[in-house]
Design brief:
With 245 residues, the protein is mostly helical. Helices cover 63% and strands 0% of the residues.
């Protein structure tokens, strides 16, 4: 009805809430952490149903956003803040989908494309894609050490849409789970739990060692960012982040 009334800002506001809910209702454990077997099976089924419904709503929301992105007259009626929130949340859902499917390199690239975390120092600036300018997030910008960048990034979160801000704890966990899985993949040890010391055999490549060093640096950056906004991150989540690091 809002769409028929050309109240497109309201439409995007609803889509933002749906996309945010899809992230927030994702299971708390990543692929590298066991969910437990029999205990809490009934609660897990209820949670799973809610997660499935939220993800279906998120998929529909992404379709509507894609439709709007090609229509400048529609975008002109949508506030800048909601455009940015919609862009970030749509890409965060893609990041979570790639993570849950075990496509960890694609997940890391999807996370970088959101511009939500300041990963530019290790990975370079997020790439642009067709139509991305319509829903582009605001970059923290500037240079300096990672601690300075993280502090500047934390200060900028005051401008973040609440629907995006509520997802930060889950994003941190998914990011660390992704990096842990990639680290063990580069190591050749499989799995995706907390990173163990590098053990490269005689035939181990320098390229693998460099990749592991890059992933460790990224993990430190993620935990540093989480540490600068601990008031937004539950204590148990922060403990899991440091354990994964």
């Amino acid at each position: 009805l809002f769409d028929l009334s050309m109240e497109y800002d309201e439409v995007v506001g609803i889509l933002v809430r749906q996309l945010s809910e899809a992230i927030a209702t994702r299971r708390k454990a990543g692929p590298s952490e066991a969910l437990g077997a029999a205990a809490g099976a009934g609660a897990a089924a209820v949670t799973g149903a809610a997660e499935t419904a939220a993800q279906a709503a998120a998929a529909r929301a992404a379709e509507v956003l894609d439709y709007y992105a090609g229509r400048p007259a529609v975008l002109a009626r949508v506030s800048e803040g909601r455009r940015q929130a919609a862009h970030v949340l749509a890409r965060l859902n893609r990041f979570a989908d790639e993570h849950d499917a075990g496509r960890l390199e694609a997940a890391l690239e999807a996370l970088r494309s959101t511009g939500l975390l300041p990963l530019e120092q290790a990975l370079g600036p997020a790439p642009t894609s067709p139509g991305s300018s319509a829903f582009a997030p605001t970059s923290p910008g500037g240079g300096g050490s990672m601690s300075v960048v993280a502090t500047r990034w934390a200060d900028g979160l005051a401008r973040l849409d609440p629907a995006v801000a509520r997802c930060l704890p889950q994003v941190f966990l998914l990011a660390m789970s992704t990096l842990s899985g990639l680290y063990h993949g580069a190591q050749g040890g499989g799995g995706g739990g907390a990173a163990s010391p590098v053990r490269l055999g005689a035939g181990g490549s320098r390229q693998a060692a460099a990749r592991q060093a890059e992933l460790r640096a990224l993990a430190r950056d993620v935990v540093l960012c989480a540490g600068t906004v601990q008031y937004r991150v539950p204590a148990d989540v922060y403990a899991r982040l440091t354990r994964l690091e």
